[in-house]
Here is the input.
Amino acid sequence: MIRVAKTENGLVRGLPAADPRITSFKGIPFAAPPVGENRWRAPQPCENWEGIRDAYTFAPISIQDTPGLGTDIYCREWHVDPDIPMDEDCLYLNVWTGAKGPEEKLPVMIWFFGGGFQWGYPAEMEFDGERLARRGIVVVSVNYRLGALGFLAHPELSAESPQTPTNFGCLDQQAGLKWVIRNIAAFGGDPEQITLAGQSAGGASVLAQVTCPENKGLFQGAIILSGMIRSPYEVDKFITPRSLAQAEEKGKKFFEFLGVKSIDEARKLDARTIRDRYAEYAQTNPRMGLSIDGHFCPGDPMERFMRGEHAQVPLMSGNTEDEFPSCIYASTPEEYTAKAKEIFAEQAEEFLRFPEAQFNPNKKEQAPISGIACTVKTAFLQEEKQGRGGKQYYYCFAPEIPGWDHPGTFHSVDLWFFFETLAKCWRPFVGKHYDLARQMCNYWANFVRTGNPNGEDADGTPMPLWEPYTAKNPCEMVFTTNGAVPGREKESSFRQFLMEELRKRLEMQQEDLA
Here is the structure.
């Protein structure tokens, strides 16, 4: 087993995981600490160290609101430790490997956590890479900066570093990817067989990396879980990136709120002071996220994907059944009709004729549909139209989830299954859930290995066939309580109408979202 690995900056020593055939390396620095003059700068090179560095524990999480203090579902699920170490010095990554030597060249998965670009960390218990590593995958989880420290834009920053004026959290992810390419062979990984993977904001991060021009050729596959988050009914002003000029205005306003007049003054503030003031600021102002900087992010990643401006790699994407339903909120037929006309313009009359779009006086939520499913399928069909179809795999996560809170398939619950870490959860999962998790983790590992999720189950029998999603064969892999069930999407003129309208919207140029 590889217990000591030689990186470009020095030797690191890992520990046997629960399965001693796997070694976990935690807290490996991949860039210089983003503190002092390095605050709000692109990640800088890491310094070398002497001797062997023990990589036994996760590094501190990025500066963010203290986790585990609330009563929401995520504080019950995995944000359970208010005392978890937190520091601005946070650019570290973690590796799980089952390789016996550097010559093995195992496929690699790089994981970006979610949390709206405001929260989250690789140490979340559901992200344990051991089960994937047991399947012959080298797993790397990368930490990155969040919130105001990760996504601030300001005219002074643009003048100081025109090529990297903002999006520091995503630049951290990119630096982690490049570190993996340079170093993963020492852990038995293949730098020419890398799959980027992420969920929610981590999935949006993968989309941003996939559509970043300078990343082409650096990875061979992509997994976007619940990360193509768009609605057929509205433009979400947080999810859709703002222009750099708009983001700079937000940064100027935040500096006024902080009471500082320059980047130099702001860099002298304590990071927790910035965090706490940002939390106050966010109560009445939009939070900071991805911006169109003209370099790392030259345009809205979703729009760029639709135009074919992305790395041409196999893609797995989908959603949970209950997360983020898209709908039109209206209390009266008149209000509903007015909103439909505003959204669909000359197509409003056609929209209002669909049975699914008939006004229901007993509900405020009209015409509910999964916006994520619409977006993923629209993107896949666009790939096919442009001659790149056949390598896009769609899933829907739809099992029964146990627990006193009767949560349904809430946003992120599928992570327990893809990572096969159910045993760490408080929910009373039983055998059928563990069987499903085994299948889902198998599909993941196969996709990372070959770009195709199909293969054998643990007993040597073929798993249910998961075909690509195409116009002629709109295959959906549905993960149910009784296991993976492949099927064809049921025909729906209503959904097709919404997908076409979404396609038109995504092909348009970036709107002014000020």
Observations:
- The radius of gyration is 23 Å.
- Residues 431-450 form the longest helix (20 residues).
